[in-house]
Fold this protein.
Amino acid sequence: MYFRKRKKGNAVLDVLIIFITIFIIGVFIVYFYSGIDPLQQELIIDFNESGDNFSRDFLQEQNTNYPTLWDAAIIFIFFGMWAAAILSGFLLDTYPAFFIIVVIIITPVLFAGITLSNIYEDLMTDDEIIQYQTEFPMSYWLITHFLPIGILLMCSIAGTIYAKTKIWQTWKTK
């Protein structure tokens, strides 16, 4: 509890952590899929030639489900991190005067989000990767739209951090 009293909400750091985590996971999943897909295709051909229909069908199902599962997982991770940031912002003690500082500091973080979006888009337009990237439409949209998403994240997290003082005052008077 000693450390909890000294903890202050940091919406800027929360947004930056969400950006970096989603970017790394998004790039890793597409590149992993681009490496495993040719291997699975070769194994499917080998199982088909050997007559092992069960293994062939299992690999085909895995190959079909992989992009959908991980595309949805990135969105799930994003919303989970967003909810955790809002919850931690509500539970941590901060002073409303720091809101102005957060608004000033968020500008470089939003530029970092734009940079990560551009890097991701450049990585995904590589000739060898673009055929695999199209299998992940939700994560592609999420990562390439970090600026509006960052503004939304910042407003919701900072709003939670700095508006809770009014909420607590209203609840205490009732």
